[in-house]
C-alpha cells in the first residue's frame, strides 16, 4: 500500500475514490436529516434503524470513519507534496489562468470542513457512542429528534454550521467534479457529469443550511 500510494497519480486516485465515497455518504446523511424537517416520526425511525442495525454499526460506520480519516490525511500529504513541487522554479504559476481559486484552496476549505467535523462529532457522534456503548442506556426509539433539535437552539452553533456548509460547497464544487478526472473518466458524458457534480455541490450544502436554519427558527 505504501509503495502504491507513493506516486502523485496514485495518491490523487485514492483521494478521488475516498472523496466519491464521502459524497455518497453525504447524500444518504442529507436525506435522513431532511426528514427531520417533515416528520419527527420518520426521522426517529430512520435514525433508530441506522443507530441499531448491526450491518450499519459494525461495518458501514467503521468504513465511514476510516474514509474520513484517510481523505484528510491524504489531503495533507498531497498538499505538502504540491508545495514542494511548487518550489521548483520552472513550474510556472499563472494565477487564475491555469487554475480556479477553489482548486488552489482545497486545503483551506477542507480544513474548515475538518474543524466542522470536530464540532459535529462533539455534538452528535461522541454523545451517541457514550449513550449506547459506555452508559448502555435501554433503547429509546423516540429520542433522536429531540437530541437533534436542541443543538440548533444556539445561534452561535447554528451560525458555525451554516458557515461550514458554505465552505463545504466550495470544497465540493472543485473536489467532486475533479474526482472523475482523477480516476480517468473521459468520455461523452464527462460534460454532463460536470454539470451534475457542480449542481450537487451547491444543492446539498444549501439543503443542510436549510435544515439548520429550519430547526433554529422552529426553536425560537
Ligand atoms: C444540518 C446538517 C446536519 C445535521 C442535522 C447532522 C446530523 C447528524 C447526526 C444526528 C449524527 C449522529 C448520527 C449517529 O447517531 O451516529 C451525525 C453524524 C455524522 N455527521 Fe452529520 N449532520 C449534518 C451535516 C453533516 C455534514 C455536512 C457532514 C459532512 C461534511 C456530516 C458528517 C457526519 C459524520 C461523518 C457523522 C458520523 C456518522 C456516524 O458514524 O454515525 N454531517 N450527523
From TrEMBL:
InterPro entries: Cytochrome_b-558, SQR/QFR_C/D
Transmembrane segments: 55-78, 106-125, 158-176, 197-217
Protein name as annotated: Succinate dehydrogenase
GO CC annotations, alphabetized: membrane
Source organism of the structure: Christiangramia salexigens
UniProt KW keywords: Membrane, Transmembrane, Transmembrane helix
Amino acid at each position: 500500500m505504501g509503495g502504491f500510494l507513493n506516486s502523485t497519480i496514485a495518491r490523487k486516485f485514492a483521494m478521488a475514490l475516498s472523496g466519491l465515497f464521502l459524497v455518497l455518504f453525504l447524500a444518504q446523511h442529507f436525506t435522513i436529516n431532511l426528514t427531520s424537517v417533515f416528520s419527527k416520526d420518520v426521522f426517529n425511525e430512520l435514525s433508530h434503524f441506522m443507530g441499531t442495525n448491526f450491518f450499519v454499526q459494525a461495518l458501514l460506520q467503521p468504513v465511514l470513519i476510516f474514509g474520513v480519516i484517510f481523505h484528510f490525511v491524504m489531503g495533507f500529504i498531497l498538499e505538502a507534496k504540491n508545495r514542494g513541487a511548487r518550489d521548483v522554479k520552472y513550474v510556472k504559476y499563472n494565477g487564475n489562468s491555469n487554475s480556479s481559486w477553489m482548486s488552489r484552496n482545497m486545503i483551506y476549505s477542507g480544513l474548515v470542513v475538518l474543524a466542522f467535523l470536530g464540532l459535529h462529532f462533539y455534538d452528535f457522534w461522541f454523545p451517541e457512542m457514550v449513550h449506547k456503548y459506555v452508559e448502555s442506556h435501554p433503547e429509546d426509539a423516540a429520542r433522536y429528534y429531540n437530541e437533534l433539535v436542541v443543538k440548533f437552539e444556539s445561534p452561535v452553533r447554528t451560525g458555525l454550521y451554516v458557515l461550514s456548509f458554505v465552505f463545504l460547497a466550495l470544497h465540493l464544487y472543485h473536489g467532486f467534479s475533479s474526482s472523475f478526472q482523477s480516476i480517468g473518466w473521459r468520455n461523452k458524458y464527462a460534460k454532463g457529469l460536470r454539470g451534475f457534480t457542480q449542481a450537487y455541490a451547491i444543492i446539498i450544502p444549501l439543503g443542510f443550511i436549510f435544515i439548520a436554519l429550519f430547526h433554529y427558527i422552529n426553536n425560537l
